[in-house]
Amino acid sequence: MNVSIVGSGYVGTTIAACLADIGHDVINIEIDDEIIETINAGEAPIHESGLEERIADHAGATLRATTDYDAVRDTDVTFLCLPTPQSEDGSLDFAIMRAGAESLGRALADKDDEHLVAVKSTVLPGTTEDVVGPILETESGTRIGDGLELAMNPEFLRMGTAVEDFLEPDKVVFGTASDEAAATLRELYAPILARDETDLVETDIREAELIKYANNAFLASKVSLVNELGNIAREYDADAYEVLEAVGLDDRISERFMRSGLGWGGSCFPKDVNALRAGAREQGYDPELLDAAVAVNDAQPRRLVDLLEDHVPLEGARIAVLGLSFKPGTDDVRKSRALDVIEHLRDRGAAIVAHDPVAIENVRPHFPEIEYAESAEGALEGADGAVIATGWPEFDDVSFEGMARSVVVDGRRIEIDEDALEVYEGLTW
């Protein structure tokens, strides 16, 4: 099929490369000339495992990028993969989505064939039908259901494993208002749906919108509960990992997302949970459990720094922060717990030297005043203490011999020879 994707951010770029990889002709519509040049040159504009080689394989053939919305007229399906920035109260700003829908609608005004528009961005229930749909109808001059179809196809991509998540998903969700839209999506996803391990969920548009939020809210709440239990276990001098390993053997609970530690971050969990909380309040419902999940999560970085301060007076101390991205395998630092750790350390007067295998340049604008090291050992050299903020595998074999005092507080339970350290503290174990 011929596919167009509006937006070449993390989601748009990933699904464009993956759809080209399974045999479709794909064009990315993007306003950033630098991103367009990067994709057309066969390079990835973001750091994501498996993405660079797929773009290199298909760029110039079945994958290309352009600023011209008119290119959508030569495609059968358009995915809207546009950002919805979050306001202070957690509500979403649809300005970019509205602008993209307007441009898309105008381009489709001159198309005679049927066309499907599928929203891929994470939006609250009602957005696809009440915001995007009317804009498309107005600008294209075509009514939904009369040659123009509308759908919601939420993404479930994790940073670091996004390519694998798209090509080998647990589930694919189609939210549609017509049989025609559902049939088009089934044809598009046929190579992926052929996997026995992939479940297809076909539902209405509003349910599809909410499934994504419910999915992330459940996982975020599970992590916060695990961290709460980890905090309690530590107060009893018990190992939370041993406790939760046993709990995970219950098939009603499962062993996944049972690692306690510094908490969740990134572009999805914080944004989606906060948007759902704000949306619930707009509907007159007080989401107390989700509020508590966020409160527990936000307290973990302070607890980590408190533990370090039990052993190292932080005023004027040189502290190494290992890990800056919100999780291993990505350079994304959005809502990274490491940034909160740095803020707490800075507020208590510590001199910070930080290292991350790939994310330093993304953090530097946030904290231009701190020192950055090109290696973990370089960050640890002469340090009075260290914290592990991201569980990069590279840190498992790091040497702490160069520290002034080998005091380490671990927020991610990496592989460390505790006996070789003066002090080792696990955040929840």
TrEMBL record:
Classification via Gene3D superfamilies: Cytochrome c1, transmembrane anchor, C-terminal, NAD(P)-binding Rossmann-like Domain
Family: Belongs to the UDP-glucose/GDP-mannose dehydrogenase family.
InterPro entries: 6-PGluconate_DH-like_C_sf, NAD(P)-bd_dom_sf, UDP-Glc/GDP-Man, UDP-Glc/GDP-Man_DH_C, UDP-Glc/GDP-Man_DH_C_sf, UDP-Glc/GDP-Man_DH_dimer, UDP-Glc/GDP-Man_DH_N, UDPGDh_AglM
Organism domain of life: Archaea
This protein's record includes keyword NAD: yes
Active site annotation, chain numbering: 268 (nucleophile)
Origin organism lineage: Archaea, Methanobacteriati, Methanobacteriota, Stenosarchaea group, Halobacteria
Enzyme class: oxidoreductase
GO molecular function, one term: UDP-glucose 6-dehydrogenase activity
SMART domains: UDPG_MGDP_dh_C (SM00984)
Pathway entry: Nucleotide-sugar biosynthesis; UDP-alpha-D-glucuronate biosynthesis; UDP-alpha-D-glucuronate from UDP-alpha-D-glucose: step 1/1
Binding-site residues, substrate: 212, 257-261, 265, 327
Pfam families for this protein: UDPG_MGDP_dh, UDPG_MGDP_dh_C, UDPG_MGDP_dh_N
Location of the UDP-glucose/GDP-mannose dehydrogenase C-terminal domain: 320-417
Gene it is expressed from: aglM
Name this protein carries in UniProt: UDP-glucose 6-dehydrogenase
Binding site for NAD(+): 84, 122, 271, 334
Keyword terms of this UniProt record: NAD, Oxidoreductase
NAD as UniProt keyword: yes
